Fold each of these.
Amino acid sequence: MQDNQSTQPNIETMPLLPLRGMSVFPGMLLNFEVERENSVAALNAALSGDQLIFLTAQKNIMEEQPGQEGLYAIGTVSKLKQLLRIPGTRTVRVMMEGLARARMLRVSSTSPCLWAEVERVGEGAAGKGGARGEALLRRCLILLEEYAQFSNAVSPQMLLQIVNSGEPGFAADTIAQSIYLPHEQKQLALEELRPLKRLELICQILRHEIGVLKIDRELQGAVHEEVSRHQKDYYLREQLKVIQTELGAEDEFFEELEDYRRQIYALRLPAEGEEKLLKEVGHLAKQPGGSAEGALIRGYLDTVLELPWRRKTKERLDIQKARKILDADHYGLTKVKDRIIEYLAVKQLSPGLKASALCLVGPPGVGKTSVAISVAKATNRKLARISLGGVHDEAEIRGHRKTYIGAMPGRIIAGLSQARSSNALLLLDEIDKLGSDYRGDPSAALLEALDSEQNYAFRDHYVELPFDLSDVMFITTCNTTETIPRALLDRMEVIELPSYTDEEKLRIAKDHLLPKQRKKHGLAAQKLSLSDDAVREVITLYTRESGVRLLERELAALCRKTAKQIAAGESRGLKLRAGMIEPLLGPPKYKPDPVLPADEVGLARGLAWTSVGGEILEVECNIMEGSGKLELTGNLGDVMKESAHAAISYIRSRAGKLGIDPEFYKNRDIHIHFPEGAVPKDGPSAGITICIGVISALTGIPVRRSVAMTGEITLRGRILPIGGLREKTMAALRAGVHDVIIPAANEADLQNIDPEVRKALHFIITDHVDKILDTALNRRLFEAAQEELDMAGAGGRGRPPLQPSPDENTPGTAINIRQ
């Protein structure tokens, strides 16, 4: 910031704001908007000082950053009366009051804004100017009244102000500021320092403007007269049509047939299609007036002729612009973005490349549908969204035969007609929700449409003509591929969209969701702000999902609460931090997975995949005196029950090496329970967890609480690969786990895990249960407990050291060592 006082007595240094297409006159108030960065900086500099700023017009309004040579020397020293920042934009609305004319001597600084040394210039003799001034003022008022007849820019209040002042200079400035003039003429008036000469100039300008406005009004009158004549002709023609209809005239019908033929020839269809449509026109010619079949043929011809047979949009192949659009709309989703960029790159090298079909697979709320919409924008393709959820009828895809009453084309052809482009992007939403019944299988009807080797001649039952779909980009979305037929899935390139990590949700909330909701609820950024810890609190305690839909709803709830408090006058805005969320959103809906207080016998922690992400799956095992029964509870599926039996069989085969009574399957009952019994559970990945839990319960060795595991077990103890590793490891990190045991076959999947998760966890790779017993079981804690019992005289009860009796060290309870 610079000092407004210069070393010379009459020279002032102040911020300079270049104006485009306007000028400010002394004594006048003017509202306008400012967008350029250096102009906003000039306003900020004036606001932080004495609010004085030098306004001058730039010579070339197209110049973005004008220098001293691009600005007029004469401008106005003005006072910044009001400044309003428009939320969500860089635009600033200001109100300026002109104070005095001034001459710019030089531009003293250009960063961060323009500063200029200016010298205020005095005007000629003030006052009414005697008889000549009075005559000029009267003449100017007469011209102004005549100008007011042609324009709404002159108000009665302005005329009254001019009459009351009686000063030529004030009258000239007021008129020049109020009426529409090119900025060059306004600058001439501003640079004229003699009031009477300035008023003479305004009179000349008014005479010219009145002449132009008179010509304009005459032209408008002529146009209005011409329009009225055309309306009269149209009305008479319509009356004539009614008379001809009453008389049974045939000319209109023949004209309609000729119009159909002209449109058919203009399409330049292949011979097969052109011949069929002309034949339909021939059938229409044979129908009597008002017949039902004639209406059906007209509907068919109108539908077919409206199809975009040759209409295409110019595809955007600029990789940088496409990437910028995709990144601006979505955070993450790297695989989808890379695939689209790769397609555009190949399209540049091979323009004849046909579009492919992509299948976006992922849990709800991760952005499958919205990213498809963003892809259409990035590639400059028209978009048509087709929802397939609950569709059971094949005719919904291929259309109905036109012989049926109410027949219409299928959704694919209707989507292209809606998009009005033959190279549109068709979004087939929820393709995994397709059904089938006695009316056919819609998924089978999609086989031809999605096959790039066949869809160049797709036939809709209604249209009955081959339509080229090879330029159409198909993007389908689904939550799972298990319900999609194999033949249909084979025609699509599957791209998985995994669930978001908490850090990704934080970025999405801060960069996309919160600004969107603030704008929707009319809140400026300073009215509602959330710290990173506050957003994490909302994510952890109020949502449990793979995507961000619930998170957006909770942020919308915070915006509503804030708007309510502001409207009621309770606060001027909220700045939320951790610990301030509960009064607004209520008690937490979810609690973090608890960290176990100590290592426990028979309690192992597994990892499970769910539709809303990964979760910790605890396995509780109890050993009791009995007859060898195996009890499995917790709402388990058949696959999980089979995993438990496989684990027991492995333990029996290794009982001697594990230090377990070989007869345990005869004299012990084993109860394996999975908490949260109301939640169905299934899958083979809990096999290793069940095995470790049962070994712990049989040996009395506690399982380390810092270890979680996942993997399918075989009868030989081999660990087989599992799925959902990315979501499972995120659940392990949230639960405070440090070590994660995973199958060796999943080692390559670690590259797909979030870097923050990979950095925080220690992964133990294994292909056999024997290799991780020392990692999963806390033998040192067990041996210390045994020594403590021996010292207390509890070791002479005659039981094997690795087989705890039911009344001592009951499995499932923690072994605590006194210090």
Amino acid sequence: MNNYIFPFLWMRGEPEENLREEISKIYDCGIRAICIEARPHDDFCGPGWWHDVDIVLDEARKRDMKIWILDDKHFPTGYAAGLIETKYPERNKWYLNETIVDIYGSQNPKTIRIDRMLKPSIGFWQIGDVFAHPEKIGLRAQNQMYAVVATKFVGSDSFSEEDVVDLTDQVKDGLCSFTLPEGQWRVHVMYKTQTDGGNEHYINMIDKVSAGTQIEGVYESHYERYGDEFGKTIAGFFSDEPAIGNISLPDYYARVGKKGMPLPWSDELEQMLIERYGDKLHTVMPYLFAESDVMKICPQVRYDFMDCVSYLYQENFSKPIGEWCRAHGVEYIGHVVEDNGAHSRLGIGPSHFFRAMTGQDMAGIDIIGAQYYFGAPDTMRRSMGPLETNGEFYHYILGKMGASSGHLDPLKKGRTMCELFGAYGWGFGVRDMKYLLDHTLSRGVNHLVPHAFSMAEYPDQDCPPHFNARGNNLQISWFGDLMRYANRMCDVLNGGKHRASVAVLYDGEGDWTAVHLPMEKVGKELTRGQVEFDVVPLDVLDDLSVWDGRCENGVMTINGIEFRILLVPYMKYVPEKLLRFMEKYPEFPVWFVGGAPDSLIRNSAGELADAAALQEVLAGAKVMEVEGLASRLAELGLREVTLEPAFADIAVYQYEKERRIYMLVNEHPDKAFHGQVKLPGIEPYMFYDGMDDVYKAASGEISAGYNSIYLDLEPGESCVLMEMKNTECAGPHTSFKHQIMQCLTAKDISDNWEVSWAKPMEYPQFEENVHMEKLVPVSDTAPKFSGIMRYEKTVDLDQVPESAFFKAEYVFEVMRLYVNGELAGSRLTPPYQIDVSKYLKKGENQIVIEVANTPARDQLNYPEPPFDFKHDALEPSGMFGKITLYMK
């Protein structure tokens, strides 16, 4: 089996023995690769860094492990190992900003001081900040005027598209004198600056020379040192959240037109805009900062701006790095900030998800910081910091969007990576990791970057949980079980192709003009109706050959995946590219979901000779509401999987290699599914148990080309069903429910247990036993304890049962069961039920259960950090409730 997991190993200059010990812990978890990350390393790309990487490479070679390298001194990627700051200050980012002056009444000559307006205006309370940063005063003196344009007010906060006056030529010696027609006007003084924008000393993604500094600063220096290891021990590089970065504060909603926001700028961007607007460019630039009355020209200008920015990001950053890596025998992977739709925006976003992924050899996303919560798909909640998190986005579209890039882009070979688990807090244990892992797998993720292994002194408050935590997280062995399961599952879901008949148009272009239906609304309806889909970008529809695509006989094929319909989430302004696709392939169904577009966005400035024909194409399009969409698609035969009875909280992933493969996950926190699943084909199906690595035959009926299979899925439980194809099975599959139903005796063993516990640094030495007549949470009497709790009991049996199952009602949160000195099994999630049939004997039977909680309660023993990312409730610790031995 290949390795599909490469967790972050944070490096800060630790001693050699710590490095080797931590890699050993990673190896013991069944993981055969790591991604080293400076967090930060003060001597990144210097002697200290090379010394530590030498040690990592030596240890990796001994263990036949692969190394990925996070490509900067600290996240986000773009610092270029400090070269902008120390060697190329002229390559700092440029921004386009504006200041304004309002002119009331007019019809009289006015003069404004342009030289004083080439910097941000401030409030009186900010005066101290100005003098606190004297270096910026000097830099602002280098700001350059770009244009001076007057716009006429219509209403309170918008301007007329009919009344725009270019005053740029009126500027002389720092002054601009003019006379405006009657009315209320706003004069926009737009200027270029290298201050008052995003992260200082970061590359400019839309400037070829500046963006290329990343390769010089990190990639070439590593190749110079370790070129012989490229393509051998060194597998490649990982970019972490590279961004447009025109603002420094995290903001999910950094769209063009956001008040007070400077815009990214470069000579290349200006040239592209000139090609679209010619000598009219100055007069349309205010639309990037303010709203117009009729919003006719304004959406076009904003679309053009974002189209150019995202193209330059692709051509100057992601694509060249990928080409450099492949030319040097390694691969390029990573992810951007996708949060709440930021994937198509400025600021912390990359301006367009699919263009940002262009150069990468795998698609990539991350799910960290409480973005996904099992059982809470629809809530708006707080995650890291004060920003609200949109549960629908993370639950219903993020994974699908990432996996679609992996499925459809031939360069990626069907591979999608997810960075996961980080910054959820110390209370996020292996149970919740299993829920999150199954969620990502069921969306199409098949490579994993767990976040993180930290060698800092415990407790390291930098975005926990940490899987080993210098020996203080005793769930590490269960984490190893989870990683072995994850690797087997990724192996099942690699090397084939996704099965989907429905394409959903990527909503990035719709988001650029703000008025649109977020694609997660469509994703939610399809997911809850078990209709499989991929997200398709407009660029591919514009040229299907880009991703080995074609459209024939009403079927659109992209990289081998056959789509039979395209769903377009509502956008008020529809791009010409989409209508051209519809015009070219009239036999291919296109449905607008949530409403029909109102206006047309052109590919370039200027009037369209065939605008009427395109409007006719649009007028003939079918419009559907979101509600009921999945049912309509099922009626057309575009749903492969049918549940009886219907159950909206089961997510389905469809895959195919030499056989059909289906992964199903019950994402409801409380309700179990008991019924049948109907799958296509006359070949018998089998269950694959990735935890125990066994195949079990499914039971059901075959009729009319379909299998109807009996299925029970407990809350949070997942399963894999695949065509048998002559595979030898280890008996029939029996669900948790039917294991209990077949038993004739239920022996209550809830009372009279001997309980002991061991702290992380003491295990396996346990403290003196405490007799519990009635089991209660250990946290009731030891609220600050984290570690292993051991429960021991002797059970007398008159005879050996034919089959037997142990079940505990409540366990917090992972357990391991020993019967008569033998390991009977482990459970990471509910139900805490284990088959003990092979281990029982007549007479006395020794039952030993070890339960591990998370390090969350142990944090009560340490000084609190002066910050909190978020707040969580503490769960109880240990095993309690009804404990039963079911026997037949």
